[in-house]
Amino acid sequence: MIRRVALVSIIVSDTSQTAKLNEYLHEASDYIIGRMGIPYRQRKISIISVALDAPQDLISALSGKIGKLEGVSSRTTYSDVITEE
């Protein structure tokens, strides 16, 4: 299994999706290194960064699920830190 360190950047413009987003993040909680959320009230959005050390498949699946949420966009950046277990 290949594990990678990655950063998932999320912008939430539809707050009704927050519960589903948190559900997805909870499912990956064993792999989350840290999470930072910034409410940008003037623009009525939330900006979230999630750092992960996880299997590449899990990172891709998580990013894909988040990106399918209406009113939520995400992008994933992978580091060069790769571990084979």
Describe this structure in words.
By secondary structure, this protein is α+β, with helices and mostly antiparallel strands. It has one domain: Alpha-Beta Plaits (2-Layer Sandwich), CATH 3.30.70.1150. The protein is 26% helix and 52% strand. The protein is built from 2 helices and 4 strands. The protein has helices at residues 18-27, 56-67, and strands at residues 2-12, 32-40, 45-55, 72-84. Strands 2-3-1-4 form a 4-stranded antiparallel β-sheet, covered by helices on one side. Strand 2 and strand 3 (45-55) form a beta hairpin. The protein is elongated. The mean pLDDT is 96.
Task: Write the topology of this structure.
Elements: E1 2-12, H1 18-27, E2 32-40, E3 45-55, H2 56-67, E4 72-84
Antiparallel strand pairs: 1-3, 1-4, 2-3
